[in-house]
């Protein structure tokens, strides 16, 4: 039998109030309080605590405060930098490639909800993975929506809302994010 947690991670419909999921969420909240208390600590100390919950490559630097749902669904390449106040809703896989730089208050959402009202009333949710390539630059306040893939070397303008995949080396801006220079 498939657990609600297994369904969640696989991107299927799941019930978020499941006891196993709630226990994982509570454990993450305790870990986040510890991590976010390290604001003045050196990068190596923060990286050691980060790796207790997140698969992080060498030289990763996530400045507190940082927020996520679980942490164990996040994979960070070498040299990833996330500035203050970033949020990652990692109910399924969120992958960020080597040397990617993420500005303050960026939000990355893998969590999603059924469009059908009856399903939402049942309390069901689902997720779609987010994949961000290597050498990507995401400006402050950008929002990356569920299921989006951002190619290597892309640039996401500050405040952009990324609703669709972004090709490698493209620059997108706006809400919804479009190729720089494109007209609505």
Describe it.
This protein has 184 residues and is an alpha/beta fold. The chain has a 7-stranded mixed β-sheet with strand order 2-5-8-13-16-18-19. It has a 5-stranded parallel β-sheet with strand order 1-4-7-12-15, with no helix packed on it. A 5-stranded parallel β-sheet has the order 3-6-9-14-17. The protein is globular, with a radius of gyration of 16 Å. It has one domain: 3 Solenoid (UDP N-Acetylglucosamine Acyltransferase, domain 1), CATH 2.160.10.10. The chain has 4 helices and 19 strands. The protein starts with a helix and ends in a 5-residue tail after the last strand.
Strand and helix layout:
Layout: H1 4-10, H2 19-36, H3 43-50, E1 55-56, E2 61-62, E3 66-68, E4 74-76, E5 81-82, E6 86-89, E7 94-96, E8 101-102, E9 107-109, E10 111-112, H4 117-121, E11 126-127, E12 130-132, E13 137-138, E14 143-144, E15 149-150, E16 155-156, E17 161-162, E18 171-173, E19 178-179
Parallel strand pairs: 1-4, 2-5, 3-6, 4-7, 5-8, 6-9, 7-12, 8-13, 9-14, 12-15, 13-16, 14-17, 16-18
Antiparallel strand pairs: 10-11, 18-19
